[in-house]
Design brief:
The protein has 326 residues and is α+β, with helices and mostly antiparallel strands. The chain has helices at residues 21-34, 38-50, 57-62, 112-122, 154-162, 167-178, 181-194, 217-227, 231-237, 305-319; strands at residues 68-71, 84-89, 95-99, 129-131, 151-153, 241-245, 252-256, 268-276, 280-288, 294-302, 320-323. The strands form four sheets. Strands 3-2-10-9-8 form a five-stranded antiparallel beta sheet, with helices on both faces. Residues 5-19 have low confidence and may be disordered. The longest helix is centred in the C-terminal third of the chain and has 15 residues, at 305-319.
Amino acid sequence: GSIDKHSPPNLPSVRGGTINMKTIAILLVMLNFLTGSSAVVKDGLWGILTDPKAYSLHTLAAQFLRSEPVRDVLYPDPTINATSAIVTDLDTGKILFAKEPDKQMAIASITKIMTTLIVLNTKSNLDEVYIVPESATKITGSTMYLAEGEKMTIKNLLKGALIESANDAAYVLAIDTLGSEDLFVKTMNSYANSLELKCTHFTNVWGADDANHYSCARDLAKLTGIALQNETFRDIVSIKKTTVMDVYGKLQHNLNNTNKLVGQYLNIIGVKTGTTDNAGESLVVAAKGESNQTVIVVLLNSPDRFAEGKTVLDWALKAYNWIEPL
């Protein structure tokens, strides 16, 4: 069940026999009614009675057909030194492990998950060209060394922000998408509120330390789960290294993923690092399992984020089996 350089983890799953689907549907609906999902069941059954063309027993039952992570009690919780951590199952949202998951902390460049998601939600044409303003060339910290007046596609800027963790790329994405960083930050906070991220607030687009710029492990796991549903985001964060060019093919930028676990293990699929004085070493990492499950790990202020990230993913894939109801 551990992460392996040569082969994906061998995760057991349980498959049922050929039982009549209608019988299973009825049983699942009854089970979920008895275990407390009564509002969902009631609404679904009312829909079936009033509008049988739009609602069906199978559709209602399908809400309860996701593979469920089931804990192997023989595995103790992992021991990690990160200040805050959470491990979640993407499909069900179930928390597999948590350590101070609601502690508000600096998150550094993990911020760029939100920044790029706002761009992806706003722009449909990622081949649209943005022009790098002079102000972007003055951005410090991790950069991809964009030049004043350089013309680059949105997609290549997204790659710069997510792979190289380039602050200048995040800045250009923000001001060229919505006109100003202030407006973009307001949009980030508005979106965070709409997602009910209860311990999250942004003051900038790339994660510079600021007393009012923070999040928590629980919120970041939820945000990452939403971001991973976007195909472009998912594709970019899984790239180990690449080269992007300006639109004329003259200016070249080599990008190396700051997430050292990407490319080290077959089933690691991203996601993002963050490092500042206040945030320490932080990491969001996700892995895909053999039962097609996705596990998300968030570590905030870890003394060794990649070692601890691998340890926790290994633990999750050993300590849980994903049981399929059918």
